[in-house]
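User: Need the bound-state model for magnesium ion:
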Amino acid sequence: MRLADTLRFARDAAAGTPLRTALSVLAMAIGVAAVVVLTALGDGARRYVVGQFSSLGTNLVIVLPGRTGTGGFNPATAITATPRDLTIDDAAALRRAPAVRRVAPLNAGTSEISYGGRLREVMVVGSTAEFVPIRNFELAQGEALPDDDWNRAAPVALIGAKIRDELFGSRPALGQLARVGDRRVRIVGVLKSTGQGLGMNTDELVVVPIALAQALFNSNTLFRVLVEAKSRDAIPQARDQALAILKQRHRGEEDVTVITQDAVLATFDKLLGALTLAVAGIAAISLAVAGILVMNVMLVAVTQRTAEIGLLKALGASGRTIRLAFLAEAAMLSALGALLGYLLGQAGAFALRQAFPVFPAVAPDWAVFAGLGTALATGLLFGVMPARRAARLDPVQALMKH
Amino acid sequence: MALIELSGIERSFRLGDTTVHALAGLDLRMDAGEYVAVMGPSGSGKSTLLNLLGLLDRPNAGSYRLEGRDVTTLSPDEQAAVRSTRIGFVFQSFHLVPRLTAAENIALPMTLAGIAPAERRRRVERALADFGLAQRAGHKPDELSGGQRQRVAIARATIMQPPLILADEPTGNLDRHTGDEVVHLLEELNARGVTLVVVTHDPTLGARARRQLVMEDGRLQHDSGDAAR
Ligand SMILES: Nc1ncnc2c1ncn2[C@@H]1O[C@H](COP(=O)(O)OP(=O)(O)OP(=O)(O)O)[C@@H](O)[C@H]1O
Ligand SMILES: [Mg+2]
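Assistant: Bound-state model below.
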């Protein structure tokens, strides 16, 4: 049979049994759509978390007071290693490390801010001028904290956009004197809103000089020190240098913990990669189920059409002609199903993105290709297998099946 | 040379533990251009014989030579090729493809054989005119009368211009008048040299043939050709 005739014959055969055709196309479409939507969810989750972590700042090395992690409880160190304070001078010393670009000591706590009789509770962060760029924050108005002696408690503050709105309304906030805890501070800048994220929300944040925060919270140690390495490649050096400097300053005792954001990120990336794979596995199963559904539909079709196969053989069709006709039919059905499923899946992912704009629900290319490929392959395989069997029947046997 | 030569043909079916001998020790010879009626009681093996002649079925034993060639030993695809070009089959229940139009049904053997569309169209147009179906070309089988359906089936059986036409009770589903029309069509084909084998229960119809075979229990009980020979 000629190719054009085979295709037309297959098309007419598919159109001749609309319910059966619709069922197998639907099965295929659901399988492919499931792959696209599920992997879009999984990969979206992965990229969302990775994105959130990157937004904490780039090339970060974080220093925490105290030794954590390895070894568990050790009675010997439990007695001797009362963690030494991590001081402002320690943080300042880290600026000497060649692999380090910027350093921001950090202290944080809750306090109150009041202005003109209005009062609210806020998160107060003590840091330095470099805190804002290290954390990838930006100023909407005003200027940064003074970049002078870190031990000087200059009475100034940066405030978040929401705090400005609540305390000052439409009046200008810059230059006003507000009260933070028991201190009077001058508002010198307003932080640009970053939106909701994994990190701190700048909207309800008050940033004051580190020395002021220590006085406010009556503490001598730092909560942590953010260290920005000069480049991604310099992160391990920055880590080692920071550790060496602090060890030296703490009389040879390694009583701080240094973590790199990269390591955290890599762990999460791996974890979420596994998640994506698991999701892909689920999708593959749903695809296999769709394939089996297609197989069943085709099996029923061949049984229903065995008499027709017998007739075709009686009219002189070779086994090859019959196999090709069914192959073409299966190919059309699964191609249509795959296409429909692809569109359905992309529409689903689009709807997800519309509903949750922060969530990048985009199916990865490999998943789309794997989904389409599996759909076509199973559709073809399961479409042709029963046809092969039918084509082997003696014509009279096939003809008698009504 | 004989068109058909059967010798020692056996065909049996197993039903549970009993074996039904549908054809037993059958020897038969037909020349080209003959008009043969096969008659006999129900279950005597007429359809089984016709299916064997049409290569729709295989004998358990014996040999079948068609146009001098042993066709029982051919592969399924070689047999398909023989069916395609040498044999036309007409069934009692028409066996048209319901989703195809009359013209497409008639063209089906040519389509399967890969004949070019232009040639197909030319031959189908001729056949439609010859069988009085010119007005029905675009109709589906369920839009045709029984007689028209059988005419489409005969047109389909002849479209590859085979030298042998096999018809299994071609008038069985038709009233007398339309049945007669169909028989006339088949006889016209025979008049043009096509060998015609018709299975029928109708004695008047059987009597029209130049040679009558009467079967009983899978054997030839009477062959009018023997007397003539
Ligand atoms: N596929 C089959 N399986 C089992 N037995 C069969 C099969 N085909 C035919 N037979 C048996 O073979 C015998 C001959 O059947 P066949 O159809 O040739 O008879 P027939 O002469 O055509 O009868 P009728 O006039 O009713 O059409 C019958 O006994 C029938 O039951
Ligand atoms: Mg019969």
